[in-house]
Amino acid sequence: MSHPAHATLSQSSYPRLTRCLSAVESWGFGLTAHISWTALVPAIHAALGSQAIFVWIPAVIFGMLLNYQVKCLGMHFLNVAGGTPNYATKLLQNYPGLARYAAIGYLLNWVSYLAVNTIVLRDLIKVNLEVLGIACPERFLDIGFTLLPFIVAFSGTRALSILHLFFIIPAFGLLITFCVQGLGWLAFSGDSPGFFPSNWSSPSFVDWAKWFFFVTYATYSCETASSFVADSRQPTQTLRFLDFAAWMMPPIFLGGSWVMMRLATHPSLKDNAFLNLVAASQPFWGKSAAISVSFLLVAACLLGSATVVSNCPRILYQLALDNHISPVFSVVSRRGVFVPALTLTLVLCLIYLIWGDVARIVAVGNIGWFVSFMLFHLGLWLRRDRPEVLFPSISLGILLLEVVVLVVGGFAWGWLNLLIGLLFPIGVMGIDAVIRRVAFPPFHPSWWMRRYHTRPKVIIKDSVVLQVGILIFLLCSAVGVGWLFGVKLNKVATAAGENLFVVLLMSVAFVGVAIACWTSLPQVVAIAEAREAAEHLFTVAQDGILVVDDRGIIQQANPATESFFGVNPSES
Known about the structure:
With about 575 residues, the chain is an all-alpha fold. The protein has helices at about 25-30, 30-35, 35-50, 55-75, 85-90, 95-130, 140-155, 155-190, 205-220, 235-245, 250-265, 275-285, 290-320, 340-355, 360-380, 390-410, 415-435, 445-455, 460-490, 495-520, 520-540, 560-565; strands at about 545-550, 555.
């Protein structure tokens, strides 16, 4: 097969995003997939028991290889946003239709993750509210948990990344503690049921393919940090984190699954994530197991949603730059907000949410995701002569296995789910085709550019009224909610109250940051921007400018003054 000049595969002059994220902030997003294990592991272990480890082992190996490959590609494409799916479009540039399908399939799975998180959080709150005798406002919670990360994302990248980092560190630390302490307890405690099971058996190939297809939802997504290379202040440090993310997969996905396999064995647990994790952790965490597990599950949902609204717009942004989708999705505001891309992400999320069936959402979303990685491995094989492509022969072998897994595992999850999952990316491509051709002004970049080039007036005095009003509302609401929960918790066991407290605590943190992003933070940013603009004008002005105090003593002189008159403020 003929290939175009290799120069077309190398970095080109893409417009760059503002490099505003520190390496640590981008690392935080790279740990989201690890804590998502808490939501996935109960289902596979309820179905396979001790046989599940034979699914996890190859999935983890393939995931680690993927991380190293993505890191190598990222070093070659330091200005490409969105990570893996946009690297796949470079590898498949001779086949633009396949490239576009691969990227959109990857995107849709992340969007489905947000819808699933919303439903899981709503159900968790519903169960605990029923214990308190309070009716659950399901529709309100669905809308609220869906919009919450978008409200923060529409205000800019930094606030969301800092909020994400603040909670991902304790959540990841708690998860590692669960895995290490659980393995230690199994190995050394006198009450341990034994480190190894008494009977071993292997799953049938159909079951193995079905659940391998399922767990790649987590093991293939540990390369998320690569999405933020283009706006990282230290892109190489961001990519080096993929090594750490790869080596954290065995202790969590294998070690944690081993703990679940040995300690969460009662049939009544079924596939309930909360009950399984509490049963597995209670022998060594005791009474703190329930509240710790609640924190892990809530963190996995909220932080997963925050990651979705961070990396999906970057995928769309880069696809638009590369002419794979409508150019309107390449529009970014002065403060780094991907408004058109975020809007499309929200619309797709609402489509999943209206569906409402978690099992079907996961199955359908994972089909496009799995095909995306099949095409990624195909692209690696097609570009096997390039230095940034590692293990091309292994990639071909993985591709052939993935084809078999898609057919066998996909049909095991239901032929209708398989068909919908395969057609959904094509449907999104059709939506994009409509956006390209309709003459509606917001569907075209020029309309957004005119809005962004008109600098809005910042009236700090008037904003104080809004901020104080919102603050009063928050304080009154907090007191009201606290009083209500206090009254109810005095009548019931404290376990349900502690679980709701964790949900409430993290939700209030997200709400507080969201409100700050729309009230006080824009004022602070506007003041900083005005100061930077004034300092820049002071520096580049060709006329002499002097800053003096009330006694006429020169405090500061711009470069033009020093050049023309030899004035040095330090000697005045």
